[in-house]
Amino acid sequence: MPKKILITGGVKSGKSRHALELAKQIKGKKLYLATAESLDQEMHARISAHQKERGRDFKTVEEPVHLSRCIKELETKNPAVIVIDCVTLWLNNLFFYCGKSPKKIQDEQDRFLKALGTTKTDLILITNEIGLGIIPDRTLNRNFMEQLGMLNYKIADTCDEVIFMVSGIPLKLK
Predict the structure, then answer these.
(1) β-strand partners of 4
(2) How large is the C-alpha radius of gyration of the chain?
(3) Sheet with 81-85, edge to edge strand ranges
(4) What is d(CA 41, CA 102) in angstroms, rounded to the nearest whole number?
(5) CA geometry: angle at 66 spanning 63 and 72, to 5°?
(6) Do the strands 122-126 and 4-9 form a parallel or antiparallel pair, or are they unpaired?
(7) Paired sense of beta strands 161-166 and 58-62, if any
(8) pTM > 0.90
(9) What's the pLDDT band for 123 if we cut at 50, 70, 90?
(10) Total structural domains within the chain
(11) Contact at 8 Å (CB) between 102 and 148?
(12) Residue 87: domain span
């Protein structure tokens, strides 16, 4: 039975590093499903740093929008584990690529959640916990925060383990 682990926490809390440590303990082919796009110098530098941190242990696949389809395609390569980094950027990409269509955004999320429920591969998912601060004053930001919170809730419900990272320390919640 495939194992699913969700790692959440704040920015720079050690989520990706911990995900890589867990994935390296699994024998077999390791895939890294990256949702970030290199749209500016700062993101390019972050992506480069993450690539160096992964080293040659992982084959990287980039997919900013269609995660459900990508998971199904990657499963055909018989990986031992797929690390998905990160759900937060993926949702941001949906807001960007799906424009003002809440239905398209929700449909893509629903397909992703279905893929999580049917996968036959171990998954380690990374997301941000953004609901611990103040409520944003802009509608778009509040909508994003609410959607990410609900998406994280649904992902956590399907996962075998949920880990909250604080200052590089993993706290097992589930």
Answers:
(1) 123
(2) 15
(3) 58-62, 30-34, 81-85, 122-126, 4-9, 161-166, 169-172
(4) 30
(5) 95
(6) parallel
(7) unpaired
(8) yes
(9) very high
(10) 1
(11) no
(12) 4-172
